[in-house]
Specification:
Elements lengths: L5 E6 L4 H15 L3 E6 L15 H13 L6 E3 L11 H15 L3 E5 L6 H13 L5 E4 L12 E5 L1 H12 L12 H15 L3 E9 L3
Parallel strand pairs: 1-2, 1-4, 2-3, 4-5
Antiparallel strand pairs: 5-7, 6-7
Helix pairs in contact: 1-5, 2-5, 3-4, 5-6
C-alpha cells in the first residue's frame, strides 16, 4: 500500500470515485489519512426521469459520508457531462490549484484506457497537473476494453462492505448493472484471487514517486 497522509480522488462524475477505489479509500481512512474527493460533474443533464436534477449532488454527499470522508473535503463541480473536452483548460487550472493547496501523497484518477470522453479528459489533465506525484488509475471495467492491473490494494471485508454501502446511496443509478453488491463483491474477489487474498482493488500504476 502506498503510504499516504493526504489522498486526492479525481472523479469525473459523482460515483466514479466510490466505484473505482471505494474500498481502498475506506482502508486509507482506517489509517487516519485525509481524503479530498473532487467530482467534476453531478450529471444533471442525464439524471433519470423521476429524480430531481440535483439528485446526484445529494447522493454523493451521502455516499462519501458512508465511507467516512469529511463533508468539507468533498468538492462537486458543475462541468457539463460528456463535454469536458470543451473545458480542459479550466479543468487543468483547477487541478493545479488543488495541487498547490493539497500537495497530495497519492492521486487516484481514471485509467489511461478509459473510453468515456469525460473520464479520459480527467486522466489526461490529471496527469499533466500531477506529473510529479504518485498517480494510480482506478478500475471501471464497463468503461474500458483493456486494463493494466499493475498495482493492488488488499482489502478486508469491512472495506468492501463500506464500498457497497456508499454505492447504495446512489438511488438514481440503481438501474445500472454495476451498482450492485454482487458485482462489487465479485470484482473484489477476482482482484483478490489475482494476488492470493480474499478481496482487493486493482489499479493501473501510472507513476510512482518515492
Amino acid at each position: 500500500m502506498v503510504n499516504a497522509e493526504k489522498v486526492l480522488v479525481l472523479a469525473p462524475h459523482t460515483d466514479d470515485g466510490e466505484l473505482g477505489c471505494g474500498g481502498t479509500l475506506a482502508r486509507y481512512l482506517d489509517t487516519g489519512a485525509e481524503i479530498t474527493y473532487v467530482a467534476f460533474s453531478a450529471c444533471e443533464e442525464s439524471v433519470p426521469e423521476g429524480f430531481p436534477r440535483d439528485a446526484l449532488r445529494h447522493e454523493v454527499v451521502a455516499a462519501t459520508k458512508k465511507l467516512g470522508i469529511k463533508l468539507e473535503n468533498l468538492i462537486v463541480r458543475d462541468y457539463p457531462v460528456r463535454k469536458f473536452n470543451q473545458h480542459r483548460q479550466d479543468i487543468l487550472e483547477e487541478l493545479v490549484q488543488l495541487r498547490t493547496r493539497i500537495d497530495p501523497d497519492v492521486v487516484f484518477m481514471p485509467c489511461k484506457y478509459a473510453l468515456h470522453q469525460d473520464h479520459h479528459a480527467i486522466y489526461a489533465e490529471g496527469l499533466r497537473a500531477f506529473k510529479h506525484y504518485t498517480c494510480l488509475g482506478y478500475d471501471l471495467p464497463w468503461d474500458s476494453i483493456e486494463f493494466s492491473s499493475t498495482a493492488f490494494f488488499r482489502l478486508e471485508e469491512k472495506h468492501v462492505l463500506k464500498k457497497c454501502a456508499a454505492i447504495a446511496e446512489y438511488k438514481s443509478q440503481q438501474f445500472r448493472s454495476y451498482i450492485d453488491d454482487g458485482f462489487i463483491k465479485g470484482l473484489a474477489r477476482v482482484r483478490g484471487a489475482q494476488i492470493g487474498c480474499l478481496y482487493a482493488e486493482a489499479f493501473e500504476l501510472i507513476r510512482t514517486i518515492y
